[in-house]
Amino acid sequence: MRVLRPIAVAVLAALALSASSAASVAPDAPVAVIGSAAISAAAVDHWLVIANDASQASTGKLAPPLPLPPTYAACIAALRTTPADSGDSAAQLRALCVASYRRLVNDAMNYLIQAIWIEGEANARGVAVTAAQVKAEFAAQRKTSTPSLATVAELDAFMAKSGQTIGDLKWRTRLNLLARAIQAQVLRKADHVSAAKIAAYYAAHRSQFAGESLTAASAKIRKAIVALQAAKASGALQRDFNHTWRERTVCRTGFKVAPSCGKFAAQPAANPSASFPGAIALPPSRPQTLVYKPS
């Protein structure tokens, strides 16, 4: 299991970020709103920790302190102890910490927003997964994961390193199942090929079939058409997904670093006209209490 990875859309170039932090907002206040689903400041704070601990989870090397504005005190103090940065001025060290914070907010905000996009897209398409499916998939992932998470001790060690909880891991498992189910639905529709379409393809590409009859070439033609339709459908899904859900996303003004934000507001509020008719699983926000201690 990787710690943070983009879902469904590629991360775009980062924009400017003002000196703001989810930590400076009330924990239950929305930092971003997609339709009627709000991502709380507490959730962003939690996933900032996870993003910061990503290298720790993969390498085992203790992660640097979280670079938190406005002072970035812990980050600056840590940089002063590193040979590469110890000779830098306070302003230079602060600039490094600001850049690090921007990257973390970019990662965490885009991940959480795109997660709600997937929830919303699944909701709109009537795609759902059950708690039993999530449980079964999570159990299967534990057996095949690198590093191994098969035992309780291994799972606890990974959670301590990554800053994630069982709730986080199962939420991400749910998202992966929903994303796969959406893609499968799109591809099922692309799998339909009429006899007329096969005949038209044969007529337009007769030279490719070396004298084969339409009947003999039909299976080959159908496979080619399905591949073309699947690529076209996947591309259309990606474009529509990005456009539709970005338009429904409003972020607190201080988080302009996140390209997934379509609009900004001082205090983003839910849009009742864009409510979700089904269940939406919001990002978990409960902190991990296990503490990683490198051996």
Describe this protein's structure.
- Strands 2-1-3-4 form a four-stranded mixed β-sheet.
- Strand 1 and strand 2 form a beta hairpin.
- The N terminus is likely disordered.
- With 295 residues, the protein is mainly α.
- It has a single domain, classed as Triger factor/SurA peptide-binding fold (Orthogonal Bundle), CATH 1.10.4030.10.
- Helix 5 crosses helix 7.
- The two termini are 22 Å apart.
- The chain contains nine helices and four strands, in the order ββαααααααααββ.
- The protein is elongated and about 75 Å long.
Estimate what percentage of residues fall within beta strands.
5-15%
CATH topology name: Triger factor/SurA peptide-binding fold
Kindly, what is the distance between the CA atoms of the first and last residues, rounded to a whole number of angstroms? 22 Å
Provide the spatial order of strands within the biggest beta sheet: 2-1-3-4
Binned, the helix content reads 40-55%
Shape: elongated
CATH fourth-tier homologous superfamily: Porin chaperone SurA, peptide-binding domain
What is the CATH class designation?
Mainly Alpha
Q: Uncertain regions: pLDDT < 50 for 5+ in a row?
A: 1-20
Report the CATH architecture: Orthogonal Bundle
Q: What structural class do you assign from the helix and strand content?
A: mainly alpha
Mean pLDDT: 86
**SS field, number of helical segments:** 9
Number of E-type strands: 4
| Count of domains | 1
